[in-house]
């Protein structure tokens, strides 16, 4: 089955005190999934939210596809709680993990899909031995930890390498992606687009989501 264009707004930039309504608004405006940034203050220098909030969100939003982007030092620690919270795709960073295959298996056994993420300083070839057990590969286009950073265009060769070598892989980009940077992401081969500020802060969210999806779709043909 060919890969599809999907837009997943990052709710990190939304009003967290009104998260269910903000998330539902994004979905109503055409978001394909929600990207939930989980940070532990150790792997990255910021702290966001954990599984209790994800579970609360799931109780309000029953059917949407949830991806948790686990920017944490010990991703294995949160597999069961996030599965219990109703997460669909558990994306974790390979950098702090000793046995990536073991963690992937644990994620699969918990009933979630596996996402593997790399920071800008990590070579994409590090993922080669794990791609066969991953559902999604996430190439960070900013340093993980904070929203609103500038897009790193020099990460696109990683995306292109993945698309050239794995034509049917879901390839996600995250960080500084919006209408001004979507073309180079799509041209390189990304099909899953995480966008925070550009979507959440847009006066017309539906239009921004639609335009970005159309760009990605045009390159996937």
Automatic annotation (TrEMBL):
<feature type="binding site">
    <location>
        <position position="37"/>
    </location>
    <ligand>
        <name>a divalent metal cation</name>
    </ligand>
</feature>
<keyword id="KW-0464">Manganese</keyword>
<dbReference type="InterPro" id="IPR026019">
    <property type="entry name" value="Ribul_P_3_epim"/>
</dbReference>
<dbReference type="GO" id="GO:0046872">
    <property type="term" value="F:metal ion binding"/>
</dbReference>
<dbReference type="GO" id="GO:0005975">
    <property type="term" value="P:carbohydrate metabolic process"/>
</dbReference>
<keyword id="KW-0862">Zinc</keyword>
<dbReference type="Pfam" id="PF00834">
    <property type="entry name" value="Ribul_P_3_epim"/>
</dbReference>
<dbReference type="GO" id="GO:0009052">
    <property type="term" value="P:pentose-phosphate shunt, non-oxidative branch"/>
</dbReference>
<feature type="active site" description="Proton acceptor">
    <location>
        <position position="37"/>
    </location>
</feature>
<dbReference type="InterPro" id="IPR011060">
    <property type="entry name" value="RibuloseP-bd_barrel"/>
</dbReference>
<feature type="binding site">
    <location>
        <position position="174"/>
    </location>
    <ligand>
        <name>a divalent metal cation</name>
    </ligand>
</feature>
<feature type="binding site">
    <location>
        <begin position="145"/>
        <end position="148"/>
    </location>
    <ligand>
        <name>substrate</name>
    </ligand>
</feature>
<comment type="similarity">
    <text>Belongs to the ribulose-phosphate 3-epimerase family.</text>
</comment>
<comment type="pathway">
    <text>Carbohydrate degradation; pentose phosphate pathway; D-xylulose 5-phosphate from D-ribulose 5-phosphate (non-oxidative stage): step 1/1.</text>
</comment>
<keyword id="KW-0119">Carbohydrate metabolism</keyword>
<feature type="binding site">
    <location>
        <position position="10"/>
    </location>
    <ligand>
        <name>substrate</name>
    </ligand>
</feature>
<keyword id="KW-0170">Cobalt</keyword>
<keyword id="KW-0479">Metal-binding</keyword>
<protein>
    <recommendedName>
        <fullName>Ribulose-phosphate 3-epimerase</fullName>
        <ecNumber>5.1.3.1</ecNumber>
    </recommendedName>
</protein>
<feature type="binding site">
    <location>
        <position position="35"/>
    </location>
    <ligand>
        <name>a divalent metal cation</name>
    </ligand>
</feature>
<feature type="binding site">
    <location>
        <position position="69"/>
    </location>
    <ligand>
        <name>substrate</name>
    </ligand>
</feature>
<feature type="binding site">
    <location>
        <position position="176"/>
    </location>
    <ligand>
        <name>substrate</name>
    </ligand>
</feature>
<dbReference type="GO" id="GO:0004750">
    <property type="term" value="F:D-ribulose-phosphate 3-epimerase activity"/>
</dbReference>
<feature type="binding site">
    <location>
        <position position="69"/>
    </location>
    <ligand>
        <name>a divalent metal cation</name>
    </ligand>
</feature>
<feature type="binding site">
    <location>
        <begin position="196"/>
        <end position="197"/>
    </location>
    <ligand>
        <name>substrate</name>
    </ligand>
</feature>
<dbReference type="InterPro" id="IPR000056">
    <property type="entry name" value="Ribul_P_3_epim-like"/>
</dbReference>
<dbReference type="InterPro" id="IPR013785">
    <property type="entry name" value="Aldolase_TIM"/>
</dbReference>
<keyword id="KW-0413">Isomerase</keyword>
<feature type="active site" description="Proton donor">
    <location>
        <position position="174"/>
    </location>
</feature>
